[in-house]
Amino acid sequence: MTTSLEQLFREARALLLDFDGPVCSIFAGYPAPVVAQELVQMLGAQGAGFADDLERESDPLEVLRRSGAEADGSITRAIEDALIEAEVRAAGSAEPTPHGREVIVAASQMDLPIAVVSNNSPQAVEAYLRAHRLGQHVRLVVGRAYAEPARMKPNPAPILEAADVLGVEPDRCVLIGDSLSDIEGAKASGTRVIGFANRPAKRQTFEQAGADAVVTSMREVAQALVRLDRTAGDQGELTA
Asked: Domain limits at 182?
């Protein structure tokens, strides 16, 4: 049984946002499969024996994960550096998620601290936030730990780090994410989580994984925040 968005935010003291999905589509203009294959070619050139296994891999983060698990540190760092460069380039042509900005602004207007918690590099997240004039609303960016892909979500470490820096208990944070790794990372950290099912098949997956709520549009989240803010304002007027 899911919880209403208003109830989640009424109890929340911080909003955590995944980046690629709830905020934007980072690889909209520089497709992820292209980036993945560029990284695979790098692995092949450096003699990584598992590169052939990644011949059809379309997720650059998965290439980095495999590098961290099977290659030595120098190769992992080289792949990390190349991926950071690619992500920063991709951020320049990223496509904003409809109503993602409205969610950030609405939460900011409620004085709800916002952190972006992403498996993408912090450099790419920060570049996007600057370009879209959102940096003023986001208090913290916790991106991918350098050359430590095992620390990416679903590892709860980045979520716990965000909660700690914000000074908020994990169970008073709400994470919005569009992948199973977000749901699993949130559950492992004790954080409440809203699954953003931007594809129909995700809804059932997120519900089965234990998401506290599932939405199909960030508009639903923005509207819930606005309703809650308006209600709080009305109550303030009544008690003034």
From this structure: 5-26+96-239
Segment 57-76, tens digit of pLDDT: 999 999 999 999 999 999 99
Whole-model pTM? 0.95
Q: How confident is the model at residue 237 (pLDDT cuts 50, 70, 90)?
A: very low
Gyration radius of the chain over CA positions: 18
Q: Specify the amino acid at residue 212.
A: D
pLDDT tens-digit readout, 113-132:
999 999 999 999 999 999 99
Given 41, 61, 91, the domain boundary residue is: 91
Could you say which of 91, 113, 140 is where a domain stops?
91
> In 3-state terms, what secondary structure has residue 175?
strand
- Residues 6 or more apart in contact with residue 175 via CB below 8 angstroms: 16, 17, 18, 117, 159, 182, 185, 186, 191, 192, 193, 194
Q: Look up the CATH number of the domain holding residue 106.
A: 3.40.50.1000
